[in-house]
Amino acid sequence: DAKTTQPNSMESNEEEPVHLPCNHSTISGTDYIHWYRQLPSQGPEYVIHGLTSNVNNRMASLAIAEDRKSSTLILHRATLRDAAVYYCILRDGSSNTGKLIFGQGTTLQVKP
Amino acid sequence: GAVVSQHPSWVICKSGTSVKIECRSLDFQATTMFWYRQFPKQSLMLMATSNEGSKATYEQGVEKDKFLINHASLTLSTLTVTSAHPEDSSFYICSAPSHRDFSDTQYFGPGTRLTVL
User: Fold this and answer.
1) Contact list, B1 vs chain A (CB under 8 Å)
2) What confidence score (pLDDT) does residue A101 get?
């Protein structure tokens, strides 16, 4: 699986937008960009995923660069409950294994 | 979204004993499930892929005789840590893909914290 690079940590203020970057310069044409987050002492939780176009759901938005070598997860109004580790993962869409390989992720702190 | 449960949520055992952890998909069927291990302050490490009705596929470096995986039904996979030792103390998490909404989403269990004394 292609590798992703994320900042180790980020800080945000409550009720402000947060932009979490992810670099994936070796992405292939069949790789989907997935984002998961993990709250303390819990299993990871799906956030969003996309292939080429920007995506929106009730939790977040995903902005994908035109060359697909980077993407940004956008939380529109951070809350204290959004404090978590956010993982950006590439998933090969042509593979039927389904497995996800986690990197170190970005630890997001949200200040009141 | 789909729900994956794990049992127990935590377990403490003596060194040398075996511990079984269950992973269940509650509202969908999963022919494949995944087992991860996570040490404090570290990321999740994929241990193995559990396949319903066939042998599990282990990642490189994971001892298959140490971590026994059984996927006997479309909703249940079990991980048995045999002859557990303190270094096996970790947070074990399972996941399963749910294809019902074609989103290729993985659903994770809440995790099982194993402490070996």
Assistant:
1) 46
2) 87
Question: How far lies A82's CA from each of A6, A65, B70, in Å?
Answer: 17, 24, 35
Q: Is B5 exposed, middle or buried (0-12, 13-18, 19+ CB in 10 A)?
A: middle
- Better pLDDT: A97 or A65: A65
B31: left (phi over 0), alpha (psi -120 to 50) or beta: alpha
Residue B100 is predicted with a pLDDT of 56
Phi, psi of A45 (to 5 degrees): -130, 135
Residue among B1, B46, B110 minimizing CB distance to A43: B110
The stretch A52-78 carries a mean pLDDT of 96
The Cα of B91 is separated from the nearest Cα of chain A by a number of Å equal to 8
Of the partner residues B46, B97, B108, the one whose CB lies closest to the CB of residue A101 = B46
Q: What's the pLDDT score for residue B87?
A: 96
Q: Does A8 touch chain B (CB under 8 A)?
A: no
